[in-house]
Design goal:
Length: 106
């Protein structure tokens, strides 16, 4: 009976009001994962080793750019737009001088 009462209290204490601006955060997630969600990132696996990590979402994603200094992330050389999130793989981007460069991230 005591265990049921404790479990019920924990579950009720974990309830968070649903507001459009607040990210959904599970109280049982690690602090790192909670911080990622609060900052608008997406938690997932990535890279050649498939490690769990936070994929940040950049506030200027999709904005027109002509150099990497115009963006939080990278300036995509193909679209001339700021990237929306961190990405693995090979990609071409514009460096701080607006020159095309390539990088492979795994």
């Amino acid at each position: 009976m005591k265990t049921t009462a404790i479990l019920a209290a924990l579950l009720l204490g974990a309830c968070v009001p649903d507001t459009p601006d607040a990210p959904r955060i599970n109280p049982f997630w690690s602090q790192e994962r909670q911080d990622c969600a609060r900052e608008g990132g997406r938690w997932g696996r990535g890279g050649i080793l498939g490690l769990e990590m936070c994929f940040p979402q950049y506030s200027d994603g999709g904005k027109a750019c002509s150099a990497s200094t115009d963006c939080e992330g990278q300036c995509d050389a193909g679209t001339l737009q700021c990237t929306e999130s961190f990405n693995f793989g090979c990609q071409s981007y514009l460096d701080e001088n607006g020159e095309a460069a390539a990088i492979c991230i795994d």
